[in-house]
Amino acid sequence: ARLVVLVSGSGSNLQALLDATADPGYGARVVAVGADREGIAGLDRAARAGVPTFVDRVPAYPTRDEWDRALTEHVGAYRPDLVISAGFLKLVGPHFLAAFGDRYLNTHNSLLPAFPGIHGPRDALDYGVKVAGATLFFVDAGIDTGPIVAQVAVPVLDGDDEESLTERIKEAERRQLVEQVGRLVREGWTITGRRVTVP
Ligand code: GRF
């Protein structure tokens, strides 16, 4: 299966996928990495692995809609079976969702529907929950609202600060991403309403 991964930052989730896909038995390979900005570690990781990259910056287009069209076209050129947002900090638009809506995955660092948005671990700490975690889901038009594929729980420990909790979540999140993407590409999936089933 062909994976296109979208990143905006450090790309540690991308790295986990690059490492996993080095094994031909995994059943998928990363055919391209896209970003919404230059100069990020995620792009370096792709280059080091010999994977082609592209960058679509929102301000490089006259309108958000044209950016959405361009991103859709650039991703589509790689004919992906799955598109994976791994720390991609942009909400895609209607063109992208029309093309990839049933095969566009995102990983988020909270147990959704709790703590959507960009500060999952901080919001979990501030709320005082004792269990945090990560969620893998298919993206829909909302913010962190799409059909859930899998979740992994991690404990919040007494001495945690934002950094320590974020790191604990990210370790579990990377493992989940690799396991679940492997499972999806090997087994396939169906989405019925909010329910994702893997046969
Ligand atoms: C992940 O924890 C993701 O949930 C959050 O940003 C992080 C991405 O990290 N939205 P990385 O770029 O894969 O290292």
From TrEMBL:
Does the record's keyword annotation contain rRNA processing?
no
User: Catalytic site residues?
Assistant: 108 (proton donor)
Query: What GO molecular functions are on record for this protein?
Result: phosphoribosylglycinamide formyltransferase activity
Cross-referenced Pfam families, in alphabetical order? Formyl_trans_N
Q: Which UniProt keywords apply?
A: Purine biosynthesis, Transferase
User: What InterPro entries does the record point to?
Assistant: Formyl_transf_N, Formyl_transf_N_sf, GART, GART_AS
Record-annotated residues binding (6R)-10-formyltetrahydrofolate? 64, 89-92, 106
Q: Where is this site: Raises pKa of active site His?
A: 144
PANTHER family per UniProt = PHOSPHORIBOSYLGLYCINAMIDE FORMYLTRANSFERASE
Sum up the protein's function in the record's words: Catalyzes the transfer of a formyl group from 10-formyltetrahydrofolate to 5-phospho-ribosyl-glycinamide (GAR), producing 5-phospho-ribosyl-N-formylglycinamide (FGAR) and tetrahydrofolate.
Give the HAMAP family listed for this entry: PurN (MF_01930)
Name the family: Belongs to the GART family.
Protein name, per record: Phosphoribosylglycinamide formyltransferase
Chain's gene name: purN
